[in-house]
Amino acid sequence: MAQQLPTYEPARIHNYTLTLETVKNLEQDLLSRSKAQREGLPGLERGREEVIAAGAVILRTVMRTLRISECLVSDLGLREGVLLDLAMRTR
Description:
This protein is mainly alpha-helical. It is 51% helix and 7% strand. The protein is built from five helices and two strands.
């Protein structure tokens, strides 16, 4: 959503630097809209209209709590992370 991509582009999403300021702006925008108004927003996957605002609030809270001003976005999921962690432990 931060990049307002019309279609999902993993190469542009993976390793994207997301700033706290961007997260705060997205959070405010999302909270000011209804679920129906969120539908079709660039970069918002269909079906996530109800949870995206809460996700933005959680991310902002974590970033503020940890005092980090930016985070690196990963296109990989939890399963991939678990597999990578297991692979690194067995080396």
